[in-house]
What does this fold into?
Amino acid sequence: MTPNWDDMRIFLAVAREESLSSAGRILKIDPATVGRRIARLEASLDTTLFTKSQQGYVLTASGERLLDHGLHAEEAMRAAAGAVAGSAKSLSGQIRIGAPDGSANYLLPQVCAKISDANPDLDIQILALPRIINLSRREADMAVTVSAPTAGKLLIKKISDYRLHLVAAQDYLDRHVPVRSVEELKGHRLIGYIPDMIFDRELDYLSDIGIDRVVLASNSVSVQLRQVSLGTGVCVAHDFTLPFHPTLRKILTDQVSLTRSFYLVRHQGDQRNERLNRFAGALMQGIREEIARLEAEADA
It folds into this structure.
């Protein structure tokens, strides 16, 4: 028996979520029904697609093979829907963007609000995760990344460069001797990423300037900036975050100035999806404009 699209849709949800309850929540189907549908699909194919483990529902070798076919079928369905929806004047449906929490917190809310204003029938979801978004399992329709992936069938476009500097709260600077060199930073409390949870080499800012100890650490940019805003130490911050933290001041700007880039990464199979193409264009333009606006405000 050949699986129909409804069977495949349920199979893909369980494969991605590794849980009947999570898949049911996404599909708006009772978990017990999801389980029965998977059991029926396995019976019709005369094979086991999942094994139950402590981690949840894990694909078997047969399940992995079916996943490849399911992803191709999903791309075809999305392309067909996108071709129809893309011809409309405004966008509709749902689009999910994956992003590291720096861009997810400080750039995407404003950018997506503007896109939403222009497309009232469009639902935009921002998935903020301190790790690489798994596009192959459709965690998101597209992702903002801090480096260009080198593996996988992906569409990759550079969005924009952005700047980073060392910062500290004004009251912290008032309570401590002036920081005149990178060497003198070692006498201050440094705040940054948890070293073994840095998911992209481009985020290892402190190592780039010769700092090997992080006294207060978090895998979240927002937490790091909150700690610095409380006057507890020094960290590397994106310039585009500084207008949101008016008590922070750049330091050692003549010695430490980092540049990184954002990229938009999409499924290669979506390259003819006019709906996603239009959204991606608006998203990239919006991010570029927002970075330029916020960095100019930070320099003022």
Q: What stands out?
A: The mean pLDDT is 89. The first helix runs from residue 5 to 17.
